[in-house]
Specification:
Low-confidence stretches: 10-64
Strand order of the largest sheet: 3-5-4-6-8-7
Number of strands: 8
Mean pLDDT: 82
Structural class: alpha/beta
Radius of gyration: 20 Å
Largest sheet: 6 strands, mixed
Bound molecules: uracil
Shape: globular
Oligomer: single chain
Strand content: 5-15%
Order of helices and strands: HEEHEEHHEHEHHEEHH
Number of helices: 9
Helix content: 40-55%
């Protein structure tokens, strides 16, 4: 009996040492919290390599959060003026972890009403775009740069982006995508901190905090400019090829 207790203690000690070595090497350990769900609760006990995690630190209140507690923080967020005009916050939805993360600009009217990303007309096209490369919404993660709708769908203000981006960085730590797809000019230029036109950014792999990011046209833009769907299709094929190879 004593022997087996000693053996058990030895295993515990060696496991602890092993986890400590991983932590010192820069790996992040995320504790298990129940089963997986669309809000990301229950990420399981996982280690993620630093190359897959953004190095930038989110603010103290959302450091190493489960996605669920992060969503809770966002629901109560009053860091910018959008808190006074939004209907619902729109945190994000999909699988956690997910191989690919799609990032749009900001919620529109329907998203603001439902509290879910890309559920309006642009969202329906996004769902079709995913289907074209054999993905569905439950197999990816979808969110926006801003978690609240700007009134009248105006462009996000720099301060709104600054206040909201830490939430995105914290989401990345939970979702740990192998690839990010930036949907549209605003998401691409904001994340890449550039004013290069989307026509030049799209279709190429860039880097966002160590994660490859591929900008493409926003589905709302494609609804207005259907002739550009051909280029978006070229981009989507690169997403498929990336996922198949990595
Ligand atoms: N457009 C976006 O950029 N995001 C949404 O969630 C909906 C429309």
């Amino acid at each position: 009996m004593d022997d087996s207790l000693d053996q058990f203690r030895d295993i515990l000690r060696r496991t602890g040492n092993c986890l400590e070595e991983l932590r010192q090497a820069g790996f992040v350990v995320i504790p298990r919290e129940g089963s997986e769900s669309n809000t990301g609760a229950g990420l399981g006990t996982q280690t993620s390599h630093p190359a897959e995690s953004p190095p930038a630190a989110p603010p103290a209140e959302i450091k190493n959060p489960s996605l669920e507690s992060l969503a809770h923080t966002v629901t109560g967020c009053r860091k910018c003026g959008l808190a006074g005009t939004r209907g619902k916050t729109v945190f994000g939805s999909g699988m956690v972890p997910a191989p690919v993360l799609f990032i749009g600009e900001a919620p529109g009217a329907e998203e603001d009403r439902q509290g879910l990303p890309f559920v309006g007309r642009a969202g329906q096209l996004l769902t079709k775009m995913l289907g074209a490369i054999s993905l569905n919404r439950e197999a990816v993660y979808i969110t926006n740069v801003l978690k609240c709708r700007p009134p009248g769908n105006r462009d996000p203000l720099p301060d709104e982006v600054t206040q909201c981006e830490p939430y995105l960085l914290a989401q990345l730590q939970c979702v740990r995508p192998r690839l990010i797809v930036a949907l549209g000019r605003h998401a691409a230029q904001t994340l890449l901190k550039t004013d290069t036109p989307i026509g030049r950014l799209r279709g190429c792999f860039h880097d966002y905090h160590g994660i490859p990011i591929l900008p493409t046209y926003h589905p709302a833009y494609l609804l207005r400019n259907p002739a550009e769907k051909r280029k978006a299709w070229e981009d989507l094929k690169k997403v498929r090829a990336f996922l198949d190879q990595s």
